[in-house]
Design goal:
It contains 11 helices and 5 strands; from the N terminus they run E-E-H-H-H-H-H-H-E-H-H-H-H-E-E-H. By secondary structure, the protein is mostly helical. It folds into 2 domains: 194 residues, no CATH class; 77 residues, no CATH class. The strands form 2 sheets. Strands 1-2-3 form a 3-stranded antiparallel beta sheet. It has a two-stranded antiparallel ribbon with strand order 4-5. A hairpin with a 5-residue loop joins strand 4 and strand 5.
């Protein structure tokens, strides 16, 4: 079966396999009717139309002539890059740089249009499209093994659970299934070039000649984007952007501390180890199982030290907010 006629996409969440399938004619007919109704209701309320977006963006100072000039400049750089890749006759590394700059320019264009996309979701067409998509997805997410629908109660059931992991992942997979967006990625001239010369993997992530993930500067990274240094074919260590080894457990540099020196080059004695050295030692001790009990002494007890790994403050992750519909 060709990739252009894919009938389903399968994915897994927390050990459960799901599948999104193509909607049938009856479901498409119902979805289109719901879209038309939602559009008319939004229009009756006086909601914005897509044709009015440009005027509204300028009114809200979200777009102006300067931004338009930058946007058109990025667009022209992509066109020029495509010409260079089509013509050839330059060094392969130069062509690679052109392709990467094209990809970067395309991403900047998407970012510049983010305000337009946010506002578009509140237009009559945007709201109507959302109703259509939500209905179809609620009908087309099934359990992979049985084919039974996940949302047995239909659209209302999905809307109550749309923040669940399987709903979020499934909606993305369904979008790719019905839009063919991945086919579009494959057709981009820069991606075609990078794939043809094996500069990227199947997911269009940059790789080196050995197939290992790298960033745009050629530095090795893992699946999460952390910098790494390969020790052999199977093992690697985590490093910083300059290749200095860091602890995977604590994120701190893995180096042995040496005393600071005075002006004559002699070590400077300290009464207490620098706090960052002490914290590192405590963190490592906490991470390792205790092998021997500490012997008690008869001497005067020393002041108690705080034990345990220092708490790391993690920033709260903002939950993805759904766009609120504007009402007249």
């Amino acid at each position: 079966m060709s990739e252009d006629n894919i009938t389903n996409r399968t994915f897994e969440v927390e050990g459960v396999k799901y599948s999104v399938i193509q909607p049938n004619l009856e479901q498409l007919t119902e979805a289109n009717a719901m879209r038309a109704k939602a559009f008319n209701e939004a229009l009756q309320r006086g909601d914005l139309l897509r044709d009015q977006l440009d005027t509204e963006l300028r009114k809200r100072h979200l777009w102006n002539d300067d931004r338009e000039e930058i946007y058109q400049g990025l667009r022209q750089s992509i066109i020029d890059g495509e010409y260079s890749l089509s013509k050839g006759g330059i060094k392969l590394e130069e062509a690679k740089d052109i392709a990467l700059k094209m990809s970067e320019s395309r991403q900047k264009m998407v970012e510049m249009l983010s305000s337009r996309s946010d506002l578009d979701s509140n237009t009559c067409e945007g709201k109507a499209d959302a109703v259509r998509f939500n209905y179809l997805f609620s009908q087309c997410l099934v359990y992979e093994d049985t084919g039974e629908p996940v949302y047995s109660q239909g659209l209302a059931d999905y809307l109550l659970k749309q923040d669940s992991p399987e709903a979020i992942k499934g909606a993305t997979e369904f979008y790719y299934l019905i839009s063919g967006a991945e086919n579009l990625d494959r057709s981009l001239p820069e991606n075609k070039f990078l794939k043809s010369y094996e500069f990227v993997d199947e997911s269009y992530r940059l790789i080196d000649k050995d197939g290992r993930l790298v960033d745009d500067q050629g530095r090795h990274i893992d699946e999460q984007g952390n910098f790494i240094n390969w020790l052999n074919d199977d093992e690697f260590e985590v490093v910083d952007s300059k290749g200095r080894k860091v602890s995977e457990a604590t994120g701190k540099f893995e180096v042995e501390f040496s005393p600071f020196l005075d002006d004559t080059g002699k070590p400077v004695e300290v009464k207490k180890a620098p706090s960052f050295v002490e914290e590192e030692a405590e963190a490592e001790a906490e991470a390792e199982p205790e092998e021997e009990a500490v012997e008690e002494t008869e001497e005067k007890p020393a002041p108690k030290k705080r034990r345990g790994r220092p708490k790391k403050v993690q920033p709260e992750k903002n939950k993805e907010e759904t766009s609120e519909e504007e009402s007249s």
